[in-house]
Amino acid sequence: MFCIKCGKKILANDRYCQYCGEKIDGTEEPQNIKQTNLVQDEKSKKLKLSKNTWKPALIIIAVLGFFTWAYFANESDPNANQNLVNVGLYLCSEYHANKAESLFTNVDYTEDINRLEELWNEIENMYVDEYSEESINSYNAKVDQYSAQATLLEQRIIATEGSVEEHDSKIESYNNYLISNCDKR
Questions:
Q1: What is the DSSP letter of 182?
Q2: Which of 58, 61, 97, 116 has the most CB atoms less than 10 A away?
Q3: How far apart are CA 165 and CA 176, in angstroms?
Q4: In the chain, where are the structural domains located?
């Protein structure tokens, strides 16, 4: 006796197929069983064919995924496609050079010092008429302006420099950034 659904041999007294669970009503002629087996063989061939087509498809997807990752990894790398810059003993991309520079900002007082020198030169070259109160007042105003700017500059220098430890900490951060993100020349 054979199952009409799956075509497998079953016992005569079985009420359900032990393979597919189909209810058994009676016997089936061998020709029907052969047709059922042929249909089932075709289905299994199709399944096998589809399993075999997954392997190349997965390989293609994996290769495309790798190249996509490699492309975008290169695009997000700050070193990619940038000019290299010398920073001390290191060769960095412009991105990393600017980033390192932002960690260690050295305050530049050049403009302030130049302005003080200009004022000093004006004071030295100023003609002062001893008998003219206006001339003396103008001279004294320039000297006061120079003194005020010199005092402000001195206060700025004291305020921005901070402690030696803070300065050393900035230098250490700057150097560590260069070491980890740039190549030594």
A1: S
A2: 97
A3: 16
A4: 84-184
Q: Are the C-beta atoms of 11 and 1 separated by less than 8 Å?
A: yes
- The pair of three-digit structure tokens given for residue 47, joined into one six-digit string: 């399944």
- Could you tell me the sign of the dihedral formed by the alpha carbons of 42, 44, 46, 48, in that order? negative
pLDDT score of 112: 86
Contact 153, 113 (CB under 8 A): yes
- The predicted-structure confidence for 77-130, as pLDDT tens digits, reads as follows 544 556 888 888 888 888 888 887 777 666 667 888 888 899 899 989 988 888
Q: Would you give the DSSP letter of residue 184?
A: E
C-alpha span between 151 and 170 (Å, rounded): 26
Given this model, what pLDDT does residue 87 score? 81
User: Checking phi first, is residue 21 left (phi over 0); if not, alpha (psi -120 to 50) or beta?
Assistant: left
pLDDT for 142-155, tens place per residue?
999 999 999 988 88
Query: Would the pLDDT of 33 be above 70?
Result: no
User: By the 8 A CB rule, do 85 and 92 touch?
Assistant: yes
The partner residues of 184 in beta bridges, in order of sequence, read 90
